[in-house]
Amino acid sequence: MKKMWSLVLALATLMLASPVFALQVNDTDTAAVSVELASKTMVDVNPAELTWTGLNPGSEGTSSDEANGYFAIQIENIGSHNITHIWFNVSNPSSRPFATGTNASYDAGNFVVLAREGSSNYYFPNRLEFNESRSLVYLKDPEGDMPPDDWHYGRFRNTSYEYFWMAQKGATCAASTFYIGDVPHTESQTGKTDFSSATGRTQVTLSDAEDGWCYGDIGGSNPFSGVYTIYVKNDTFDQVYFAHWNKDLHGGSGSNVAYFWDATSDPGIPLVPGNSTAANIRVWVPYGVYEGFSNQGTLTVIVNDA
Questions:
Q1: What does the DSSP 8-state code read for residue 103?
Q2: How far is CA 280 from CA 103, 109, 118, 261, 276, in A?
Q3: How many CA atoms lie within 13 A of 175 on its CB side?
Q4: pLDDT digits (tens, 9 = 90+) for 26-54
């Protein structure tokens, strides 16, 4: 019995040690495989939702305040065609949200600011501001009236910094004057409030844009010189957009609006299929926003090949 087991073991060992031979190949042939992709421009953005919580009025929401720690969005070319331009559009409130006493009046999209990957220069794509809900008794218009009389006025709300602006009333906004203060109003300083003095104010002469709006580039010595193009609502003069990353807002007129990705200048190459870029994202919440969750907003990424 012992010899039989030894024989079985020896046979098993011999089988395991035997070399493995490849199957014999007697002939081969090939078949050509071709795949043609249609020209399709497509983009994918992630994450699909961002939530900032616990922010104070007049503060900046960063990745530390975002529910998942997100600090940027990834923009990927998932199509088959080169992307030449990327720009953005954010949702805005439909009417003046301040002094309404409800958080549903505010749109979280209006708080969004974006910066290119590796940059700390954050700008609003298209922040919408409205004229003041009531007279500000400490504000003087360019004609010396206090409170202002023949001028619509409001604030460009930039976290805890508020820059007063004034839009000249008239039948049309084309060739009319828009002023913005160079010194902000904050909790500790009044800022530029006397617009009858040329010191500390920047003048913008408006031109026709599209869809009943006028536009002008902020220049001069203002902190937003070369940064924002303004769009003023014609006839009513009570709404003002401050735009940077939205290239086609009301026709895209203005020198200060910019593409986030531009294959002809910055970065100078197209975003090819399978490649991606990132946009750093934060929210700048102004003073006077009602407590709780503001109305959920949207950030839209727009791409083309032109």
A1: G
A2: 26, 15, 8, 13, 13
A3: 2
A4: 899 999 999 999 999 999 999 999 999 99
Q: Which two tokens stand for residue 248?
A: 């086609």
Q: What's the angle, vertex CA 112, arms to CA 93 and CA 125, rounded to 5?
A: 85
Instruction: Find, among 298, 305, 304, 1, the residue nearest to 125 by Cα.
Output: 298
Local confidence band at 170 (pLDDT 50, 70, 90 cut-offs): confident
- pLDDT confidence band for 226 (50 / 70 / 90): very high
**CA dihedral over 130, 98, 186, 194, signed as positive or negative:** positive
Note the CATH architecture for domain 41-125+249-306.
Sandwich (2.60)
Pair 114, 280: CB distance under 8 Å? yes
pLDDT 10s digits, 254-280: 999 999 999 999 999 999 999 999 999
Q: Output the CA angle 58-158-148, nearest 5 degrees.
A: 100
134-139 contact pairs (CB < 8 A, 24+): 134/99, 138/190, 138/193, 139/164, 139/193, 139/195
For the cut 90, the answer to whether the pLDDT of residue 236 exceeds it is no
| Token pair listed for 216 | 């002008």
Q: Are 174 and 168 in contact (CB under 8 A)?
A: no
Residue-range domain boundaries for the chain: 41-125+249-306, 127-243
Eight-state DSSP code of residue 105 = G
